[in-house]
Write a structure and sequence with these properties.
It contains twelve helices and 16 strands. By secondary structure, it is of the alpha/beta class. It has two domains: 158 residues, Aspartate Aminotransferase, domain 1 (Alpha-Beta Complex); 226 residues, Type I PLP-dependent aspartate aminotransferase-like (Major domain) (Aspartate Aminotransferase, domain 2, 3-Layer(aba) Sandwich), CATH 3.40.640. Strands 2, 3, 4, 5, 8, 9, 10 and 11 form an eight-stranded mixed sheet that branches. Strands 6-7-12-13-16-15 form a six-stranded mixed sheet. It has a two-stranded parallel sheet with strand order 1-14. A hairpin with a 6-residue loop joins strand 12 and strand 13.
Length: 418
Amino acid sequence: MDPRYSVFASRFVGPSGTRLLMDDLGEALAAGEDLCNLGGGNPARIPALQALFRARLRATLDDGTFDRVSGVYDGPQGNREFLRAVRDLLRREYGWPVEVDHIAVTAGSQSSFFILFNLFTGHCVDGRRRYLDLPLTPEYIGYADIAIEADALRARRPLIEHLDARQFKYRVDFPAFDLAADSGAVCVSRPTNPTGNVLDADEMSRLVEITASADVPLIVDNAYGVPFPGIVFDAVEPVWAEHVVYCLSLSKLGLPGLRTGIVVARPDIIEAIRSFNAILTLATGSLGAVLATDLVASGEVLRVVTEVVRPYYRQRVADAVSWCARHFDGIDYHVHKPEGAIFLWLWFPDLPITAQELYARLKARGVLVIPGHFFFPGLAGDWPHRHQCIRVSYAQDPVQVEHGIRVIGEEVRRAWQG
């Protein structure tokens, strides 16, 4: 690193799990069929969704909408028609008392987290330093590096509940989750990337109560959740409170390249996001919002989730779990109960090599995964468990997914034999 770089820049230009993930995605794209990419976060290319969005794009070309949205800036809060459509959906489906000034568009979820994490952490105007608390890890890889001030995140180890059929589930260790006076915000993802964990209603209710009592925002990463893209396999109900901040996205609905994030929060937070957007990007991109507006306004997006998206991923995850049972036969392994999102979280207890070394061996054989230790941002101290896990995407071509799982099984056996 050039010593003339700013301290601010040093938080971004060094090695990171996010950089590893995106480099691997680029490498896989460039290699075409030569790499089996089970490491990325790209959603599946579901034909019915692709046809739907192509039709919407053709309509914007035919009626002149494309010329309007591509030729002018939207305001820094986002496309107004889309904001109204999201407002109406949340009112209609959940009874949330939201207005347009409760909603903003960002340049994707990662942009949302950058704004929110740096809004509530670091050295604050009142002279105090505040931190972002994660009630449990593992958590999303992208949280680790986006706070401008180092060591801004604090995380807790989860409780591990062992289930049947080699499955397990992480639970919030509430006796260990105490919020100090220097907590600036709390963040959870539901469903969780990387594990597919879904916090149950009791866990969410307790987190809402704890954060309300401490007067700190509860940020809920809803990139895979309801109402869209709805990659959740059991019924869940989102919880509204004035201090809760929801981060949604169009990426996992099938538009990751259009970078459209949505934040739902109280108006003063939305006003701050408008200011961030204006300074960082002038305005957010409009195309994703325009393609989705009619789907959201009409409620058609909920039918698409129920009839297309959720059944597709439910079948894919069932296949992936069965392939693990087949190709990991005789291996000591566990898989986190897949309750949502698009990943399997695989745990190999007492693995004689680290997950990083397993990643390197798999990459040498043309299979990309993500080693687990990147998914524990803010966790103090060493914990062997974090070096025994890997994240595997099951959203890609089923033939490739089974091939990758088979190779994982072969390499784990070789590690034990070696």
